[in-house]
Amino acid sequence: MTENIENILASFHPLEGKLLSAIKLGGPGPFAEEALLQASQLDESRFTMAMGWLLTKNLLTAEAAGSTTTVTISELGRQYLSQGFPILTIVQKLKSGNPMDISGLRREMDPLDVSKAIGELKNDQSIQIAAGGVLELKRLDIDHSKVVGRWQNLKKIVENISEKESVVLETCSSQEKNIINLHGSGRGKKGIFSLQEKRHKSYHLTVFGKKIIGELDLDRFAQEEITQLTPEMLKEGSWRNKTFRHYNITLKPSRAAMGRKHPYREFLDTIKMKLVGMGFQEMRGGLVESEFWNSDALFMPQFHPARAIHDVYFVRDPKNSRRLPKDILEKVAKTHETGGKTGSTGWRYSFKNDRAKRLVLRSQGTAVSARTLASGPNIPGKYFSLARCFRYDKVDATHAPDFYQVEGIVLGEGIHFRTLLGLLKLFAVEMARAKEIKFLPAYFPYTEPSVEIHAKHPQLGWMELGGAGLFRPEVTLPLGVSVPVIAWGLGLDRMAMMALEINDIRDLFSVDLDFIRTKKLNG
Q1: Same-domain status, 41 and 80
Q2: Within a domain: residue 232?
Q3: Are 180 and 214 members of one domain?
Q4: E strands in 152-276
Q5: Rounded distance between C-alpha atoms, residue 167 and residue 161, angstroms
Q6: Is residue 254 domain-resident?
Q7: Please, are residues 312 and 360 in contact by the beta-carbon 8 Å criterion?
Q8: Phi, psi of 284 (to 5 degrees)
Q9: Within this chain, do residues 282 and 240 fall inside the same structural domain, yes or no?
Q10: Domain that holds residue 161
Q11: What distance lies between CA 137 and its chain's CA centroid?
């Protein structure tokens, strides 16, 4: 053991020496990461490298020591500081007594800011909209209204943080925290504040580390070490009275970082291989899709709330699809308006061809199924697609704004609902490695009957894997298919959470190299 300690002491890099010196002078520990960083006088990258070496040598252990959140003003917040906060600006204009209409405000300010501000002021019963869109004050004490008071408090907080450049969220009052969190960036919205969380660590000496520290000679690291003996040093004799770094050739080499598939990529390939092995053919489609294939062909009415700007991402340029199949477009339009030849009464509204051409980011893999049904599929036939989809959604442990679905259809005589339930159970058990599953009734505009499949996650509990059902005649007949068709769209990201035994959907896209190198499919 003594020989081993001597070898380790002799092999320390100068960066490790600086860090160990700070630890020895710092007492018995534990050692806060920030304090060690300052005491060692290393920059953050060299500190992280040296600390990694010491942890690998089992001299120290690390543990979480809480976190702090730094709050700064976002670009939107700086814009409000320079140009004025929308609600306060509108109130000031109204108090001046000059007539003001909504259209004029939208020319001067961001239209979305104007709409939100007017909405808050109307709900607060502070203003009213007269004929011609003219805004009028309803209360003279508007400065004391709740909504104006909230924005005045917000303005003070923004000005205070801007003056200090940044503040730590944990040092703020509970009222300030609520306001900052409410107006922080994230969740698919631009916020007035930017929040940056930093996780802290503390370090403890191991038993072996305490022995090393006890034998450590601080004077050694105060001297410059020579790492290479050059001909010039031999000729000049300058090597005399110099300290040479010791090398330990018995130490194991560092782990070779061999390339491998990302765990999520491996999961996707496994899903594809199993479906192909079951006789399914792969369907493909573009990430950008027209509303016709994304919604209209699936008998989703053009007034359906899921087709609003708050649920799907619209493409800015180009806005519209150049061409849609005229014959299918006419059949789908008639089905929406009157039911066409499907025996349905339709949705009874005037179908808009221009709306059908609007381009969106594909919001559901079912758009690929619709294209396949319209292209003359094999009957009987089985098809699948691993489709990347996009929806406006709050990011949390089980939701993300872009995600993968495994979309599939089976068509042919004799296909029925029990066939679908059997396939869903097979997918949940074999692909998601689910131990417990359950079916719940559901509603989708394009399937009847419809069902949701849920699986029990060991940590998160029951979560929905996806929806399924039998395509309605209003979907299949206009596309030229007259046999029963079962369809499903399951969330591949959630299935991967089950199979890879992770508790947060964001971990699928982790930059943690250890996670990527070591995580394997369960079973």
Answers
A1: no
A2: yes
A3: no
A4: 167-168, 193-205, 225-226, 243-244
A5: 6
A6: no
A7: yes
A8: -135, 155
A9: no
A10: 73-197
A11: 42
Answer for the pair 419, 486: CB distance below 8 angstroms, yes or no. yes
Same domain, 298 and 422: yes
Starting at the edge strand found earlier in the chain, the sheet holding 485-491 runs 281-282, 381-390, 402-411, 485-491, 461-471, 447-457, 437-444
Same domain, 305 and 212: no
**What is the count of structural domains for the chain?**
3
Per-residue pLDDT of the chain (523 residues; tens, 9 = 90+): 444 666 677 677 778 878 888 888 877 778 888 888 888 888 888 888 888 888 888 888 888 888 888 999 988 888 888 888 888 888 888 887 777 888 888 888 888 888 888 888 888 777 788 877 788 777 777 777 788 888 888 889 888 988 888 888 888 888 888 888 888 876 556 788 888 888 888 888 888 888 888 777 666 665 566 677 788 888 888 877 777 766 667 667 777 767 778 888 889 999 999 999 999 999 999 999 999 999 999 999 998 887 776 578 899 989 999 889 999 999 999 999 999 999 999 999 999 999 999 999 999 999 999 999 999 999 999 999 999 999 887 777 777 888 889 999 999 998 999 999 999 999 999 888 889 999 999 998 899 999 999 999 888 889 999 999 999 999 999 999 999 999 999 999 999 888 888 888 888 887 778 788 888 775 5
412 and 380, same structural domain? yes
Which distant-in-sequence residues (6+ apart) come within 8 Å of 439 by Cβ? 421, 424, 451, 452, 453, 454
Cross-strand bridge partners of residue 134: 101
* Distance between CA atoms of residues 159 and 166, nearest Å: 11
